[in-house]
């Protein structure tokens, strides 16, 4: 087995750096990163006025709208997480979803939106929504929404993953400065 000389490794590393730099030179300028949002910095609203009851637990939970017109439905079932749709700032997508079992997904829905006939209650700017199911959202500004999904605090710390999926911490931020999921 040949161990490469330092000069071989250095030359290879330089080639990789120059190759990546060449690719990036023709790339569109990067959009600014969305702001980091400390969800705990915002006061929580009472979740009761936002609660909805469906024919099945998967259609029950909480629903709210941001001042910017983004409508979110937070499922009673933690694995289902939250789905938000509307004019999402910082992205061409019109829908984003996240749960404790999957990272944020920004998409364009293939079907028309459905939902309650009346407008849901507005989650005010500068407030946080936390119904205790592991999904926490905040509205730092009228056009900014941040949501984070994790194991609910009510679950034992040693709750094991189901055999077909992994529990983790995931979320998203939509902002005029850019949007990101994790």
From TrEMBL:
<keyword id="KW-0732">Signal</keyword>
<feature type="region of interest" description="Disordered">
    <location>
        <begin position="158"/>
        <end position="182"/>
    </location>
</feature>
<protein>
    <recommendedName>
        <fullName>Secreted protein</fullName>
    </recommendedName>
</protein>
<feature type="signal peptide">
    <location>
        <begin position="1"/>
        <end position="32"/>
    </location>
</feature>
